[in-house]
Amino acid sequence: MATLLHIDTSVFPEGGSASRAVTAAFRKTWEEQHPDGTVIYRDLGTDPLPHLDGVAASAAFSDPATHSPEQQTAFALRTGLAEELERADAILIGAPMYNFTIPSTLKAWLDQVIIMGRTSGAEPSAKGTPVTVVASRGGSYAPGTPREDFEYVQNYLEAVLGGGLGLEVDFIVPELTMAPVNEAMADLIPKYEASRDKALEDASAKAKALVDRFTA
């Protein structure tokens, strides 16, 4: 039985979040196709992790036998997150663009879960695990658009998830999500709707393909 690690980070609830709508479609298909599987769910939008501090960081570079009580607590959190990552056969991350980059809650998860010599380094412990990132955004930052150079979500996550953690990274990009509520973008609503529909279709297709891959 395969395990899916599902992480949402939108500050908005389901129904008001483009990324949550797409991750929900992915997970729905995953659970329908693989009812005996396991889902580990973290909603960092409603239950954020603490940001990495000196206590937690130093604990990763010192002998556990020498840890202070504060280091023990901090490193137990990091170890638990690493274990979730390592247990996963597939990972699903909702990563809406906020101010041209990822939510701070997702950055906090990354800082906590990246442990040099374990999840990161020469042989990352989750190397090769497929991760689907739903990188929603209010406008468009695709190649050839005026704001192409402001795209710091896909570029960053490709580097940290692929290069740092050794994961197999794939993106679904619902864009122009502000078109229905921004009068200045009204003429882009058809493009938004097409992008939304494609993202939902891609989510279901990718979930099914991964289930087929793990249950073959």
Automatic annotation (TrEMBL):
Its EC number is 1.6.5.-, 1.7.1.17. It is an enzyme of class 1 (oxidoreductase). FMN binds at residues 10, 17-19, 97-100, 136-139. It catalyses: N,N-dimethyl-1,4-phenylenediamine + anthranilate + 2 NAD(+) = 2-(4-dimethylaminophenyl)diazenylbenzoate + 2 NADH + 2 H(+); 2 a quinone + NADH + H(+) = 2 a 1,4-benzosemiquinone + NAD(+). Keywords: Flavoprotein, FMN, NAD, Oxidoreductase. GO terms for molecular function: electron transfer activity; FMN binding; oxidoreductase activity, acting on NAD(P)H as acceptor; oxidoreductase activity, acting on NAD(P)H, quinone or similar compound as acceptor. Its cofactor is FMN. Residues 3-162 form the Flavodoxin-like fold domain. InterPro entries: Flavodoxin_fold, Flavoprotein-like_sf, FMN-dep_NADH:Q_OxRdtase_AzoR1, NADH:quinone_OxRdtase_FMN_depd. Binds 1 FMN per subunit. Belongs to the azoreductase type 1 family. Also exhibits azoreductase activity. Catalyzes the reductive cleavage of the azo bond in aromatic azo compounds to the corresponding amines. Homodimer. This is FMN dependent NADH:quinone oxidoreductase. It comes from Streptomyces natalensis ATCC 27448.
